[in-house]
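Data deposition worksheet. Section B asks for the primary sequence of the deposited chain exactly as it was used as input, without tags or linkers unless they were present during the calculation. Section C holds the resulting structure in token form. Section D is free text for depositor observations; keep each observation to a single sentence. Incomplete worksheets are returned to the depositor.
Section A, Depositor: J.P.
Section B:
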Amino acid sequence: MTNGAVADLAVVTAVTDPEASRSSRVSMFLVDLGSEGVRRIRLSKQVWVPSDLTRLEFQDVLVPEDHLIGLRGRGLQQVLSVFTHSRVAIAALTLARRPALSTWP
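Section C:
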């Protein structure tokens, strides 16, 4: 997770219905990262250094039902929507960090 070491909350997807179809088994939740059972492990990275990258581990974390974001079983669709809407901006960021072709060896 980007900035996971300093964040108070995280948007997390989790399987809520393992018997449902692949497109309907995941839901999205808002999780308090100060909750018991949340472990943060800061990772080292060499790109986009200003923001940290953190592995989040969850063990028996209680997430209240009212922390569900959207509809139960629609988490995959919500994630895909975020990816679709952010793809152009992220691609632009990668191009902005690349040196001009005329300066390449």
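Section D:
The mean pLDDT is 86.
The beta strands are 9-15, 26-32, 38-43, 53-58, 68-69.
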